[in-house]
Amino acid sequence: MEFATLSNGVRMPKVGFGVYRVPAEECQPVVQKALEVGYRHLDTAQCYFNEEQVGAAIQASPVDRSDIFLTTKVWIGCYGEGQTYASVERSLRRLKTDYLDLVLLHQAFADYYGAWRDLVRLYEEGKVRAIGTSNFLPVRLADLAAFGGMAPQVNQVETNPLCQQRVAHDYMAAVGVQHQAWAPLGAGAAGVLDSPVICGIAERLGKTTAQVALRWLLQRDIVVLAKSTHEERMRQNLDVFDFELAAEDVAAIEALDTGHGTFIDPSDPATIDFFRPLVEERCGLL
Q: What family does the Swiss-Prot or TrEMBL record give for this protein (predicted)?
């Protein structure tokens, strides 16, 4: 495994295992299997409703907690000074751990300023080793860095061959924020894995299309969060450090960029309309 070093010196494995949309009843055995095949970076969130199962998997695994990089994300409905702090304490209990390696604000909506002040407090108290954001545009990152008391160490955004985030990536690199990719394979629905370009490269190199897409991201210094509930694909997605894409392959994949996301657009006001009922629906559940 290779590691990225965050701005505060914390080391993060470059390939992580995400549990978005892994049902609670399946989550513990899936995470235990991921740890068994070699993953040491786990990513969950309060609104995935599977933190408790992730914590149980870690407890049941022979892998030492200190060897696992564990991330969770604060849900929008838990934003606000004091509320965010309490929500992270609840996450700690659900995850059965006394510290978290990384906590992110899940979206740049509602009182993310009050939420950020709580994350800074948790960081200063040593309950969290690193703090950051998810789905924050460069202007919001700049806002927190300038006025939030501490710059984010990580920003997790949708990034894959069809949504390359070039402007955001360049900004993050310039200010020392680690770029982390969710949906690095397009979540199986964006046409990434059946792209003729990526299929051709994969066939020539004797790799899977997923391995090619992940390798392309790693060569951009982007940490990736791959997800699969199938053991063989888990192993394949982790086996991406024994080859390198040539310059012409990188250029061919760069030409696939659509310039926009395949899921949500944090710059679109309609996205707020999408999240409002979700926040109300989950109010009190976290």
A: Belongs to the aldo/keto reductase family.
Enter the tokens of residue 235: 């192993």
Instruction: Name the β-bridge partners of 133.
Output: 105, 155
Give 200's contacts (C-beta < 8 A, 6+ positions apart): none
Q: Which residues contact 232 (CB under 8 A, 6 or more apart)?
A: none
What is the spatial distance between Cα 88 and Cα 99, in angstroms, rounded to a whole number? 10
**Which one, of 51, 41, 36, lies nearest residue 18 by Cα?**
41
Residue among 39, 48, 123, 171 flagged as catalytic:
48
48 is catalytic: yes
pLDDT by residue for the chain (286 residues), tens digit each?
999 999 999 999 999 999 999 999 999 999 999 999 999 999 999 999 999 999 999 999 999 999 999 999 999 999 999 999 999 999 999 999 999 999 999 999 999 999 999 999 999 999 999 999 999 999 999 999 999 999 999 999 999 999 999 999 999 999 999 999 999 998 766 688 999 999 999 999 999 999 999 999 999 999 999 999 999 999 999 999 999 999 999 999 999 999 888 878 888 888 888 888 888 888 777 8
Helix (H) or strand (E) holding 72: strand 69-74
Specify the residue for token string 């990434």. Answer: 192
Taken in order of first residue, the domains within the chain and their CATH numbers are 3-282 (3.20.20.100)
Contacts of 83 (CB under 8 A, 6+ apart): 114, 115, 118
**What does each C-alpha distance from 143 to 74, 96, 113, 138, 139 come to in angstroms?**
19, 33, 10, 9, 6
Separation of alpha carbons 237 and 16, rounded Å: 10
H helix or E strand, kind and range, residue 31: helix 24-37
Does the reported pTM lie above 0.90?
A: yes
